[in-house]
């Protein structure tokens, strides 16, 4: 079968090549991939930014998000059958959705929302699970609380705004000048044009910040939080708690502790907490997300779609950080499954 592969780490590495069909373990579901979506995580893995915590071997098929049709199931699979339309964020260590087929552990899989196309479903898993794990699982966001979500026009931002509003929160976000009306239409209560204003001088007394940007924005976020507030970052730096939960070696735990010591110390002085969230695959949480999509509370946002043979172009487009929502790769669009 065909897959988009990298043979080494590097910004411009990648090719479409032939690989063996996936092996299907007892708890695996073999999915014929109709669509996949591109995340910044794919680019960061291609460049080797996560090689310490996600050691992959080459050649490596990239891709984390998938929507498709079940072809075959492992002997112990109970909840899926051939012909089911499904979607997932492939688990770490078993990625490779930029391919014609992928075997996914059933615990990471869910039935596709009935009112979403394959492309729309592929745009959801990683960003929707990230928003869920930050706002619902970690922050335990409550009705009436104030949350600041950075980069409201990005993949995570577009879903996080919708989820926060569904939870009853007051939502502020940032975006560029021409995207301000568009992001307001997603439901944000306050939209700050970052080219015109500094969010840290405009916002105050927030309960939660979802940080997805760099060190400068991370430190500025401390200024807008009320005592007892939560600064939750998906872009780092990682914490010792994260390293321990992942079962990393003692030296790696020490390194991560050092990387985040500064922001954790400043957070304590401010009377707020700091947490790092590296989203994980979860079929049960995807089922919750499916319910929200089918009820109209969450809507996938797609900027552009690329054909499979232009996967490298899709990665390059995402790396420009200008997309409104998600970028999708069409792998078997409209093709009946065998």
UniProtKB/TrEMBL annotation:
Domain of life (superkingdom): Bacteria
What GO MF annotations does this protein's record show? oxidoreductase activity
Xref: Gene3D superfamilies: Medium-chain alcohol dehydrogenases, catalytic domain, NAD(P)-binding Rossmann-like Domain
SMART domains named among the record's database cross-references? PKS_ER
Cross-referenced InterPro entries, in alphabetical order?
ADH-like_N, ER, GroES-like_sf, NAD(P)-bd_dom_sf, YIM1/Zinc_Alcohol_DH_Fams
**UniProt name for this protein:** NADPH:quinone oxidoreductase
An example of a Pfam family matching this protein is: ADH_N
All copies of the Enoyl reductase (ER) domain together span: 14-329
